[in-house]
Amino acid sequence: MKRGALLSLMVLLPSVAFAWPWSRDMANQISIKPQEGPESVRPYPQTSVPMAGTKTTPFIKTHDEAMKLKNPNPATEKSIGYGRELFQIYCVPCHGTSGTGDGLVGAKLLVRPFDLTSDNVQKIVPEGYIFAHITFGGALMPSYGNDMYPSERWDVVNYVRHGLVADDKKMAQQKNTVGSAK
Questions:
Q1: Which of 128, 121, 129 is nearest to 160 (CA)?
Q2: Which residue in 26, 94, 159, 179 could disulfide with 163, CB within 3.0 to 4.6 Å?
Q3: What Rg, from alpha-carbon coordinates, does the chain have?
């Protein structure tokens, strides 16, 4: 008799334990996540017009469309400086401060990140190509289209085209000066 009671207790105890309210997982509750449901992504009304100065993404869907874009940001010191700051945040981990693909993350990849100081990037491809690559990503490069406003991406393009190589030359001169002082 004791054996039968013990056996039934062993069978019933786990099923009773799962019935207690505190054993329920709080993640399985009725709630609406931020990007769920019909109201998650609201399109602009048909008659809406963007305000001047509003940071909006140009309506481009492909890399080829983006390549045809002209840079709306002039390559001023302010634009290049802001592009340098963004480059240090988003690009340096893979491309390195020199832009040659010698970043800490880039060193761990099987394929080295693209050399942004090459003549191809600096002189041949249109600025829209660099913008498209930042926006849509590449084979190994992630997309930063959702992380930066279009104006910020153009500032990075200005830095890559007009400030990156100049910064490399300054750094090389500083190393030579420090090295000769020793």
A1: 121
A2: 159
A3: 27
CA-based torsion, 129, 131, 136, 139: positive or negative = positive
DSSP string, 39-73: TSSPPPPTT--PPTT--------SHHHHHT----S
* pLDDT tens per residue, range 80-131: 999 999 999 999 999 999 999 989 998 888 888 989 999 998 999 999 999 9
Which residue in the block uniquely carries the two structure tokens 């786990």? 14
| Amino acid in the structure at residue 162 | H
Q: Rounded to the nearest 5 degrees, what angle is found at the Cα of 54, between the Cα atoms of 92 and 128?
A: 45
pLDDT at 27: 58
Are 103 and 93 in contact by the 8 Å Cβ rule? The answer is yes
Measured in whole angstroms, the distance separating CA 11 from the mean position of its chain's CA atoms is 53
Residue 101: closest CA among 89, 114, 111, 88: 114
Q: Which amino acid is at 78?
A: K
CA dihedral defined by 15, 19, 25, 31, rounded to 10 degrees?
140
Q: What whole-number distance in Å separates Cα of residue 9 and Cα of residue 13?
A: 6
Amino acid making up residue 164: L
Do 162 and 75 form a contact (C-beta atoms < 8 A)? yes
C-alpha to C-alpha distance for 90 and 145, rounded to whole angstroms = 12
Tokens 């289209």 identify what position?
145
- The CB density around residue 27, as the number of other CB atoms within 10 Å, is 6
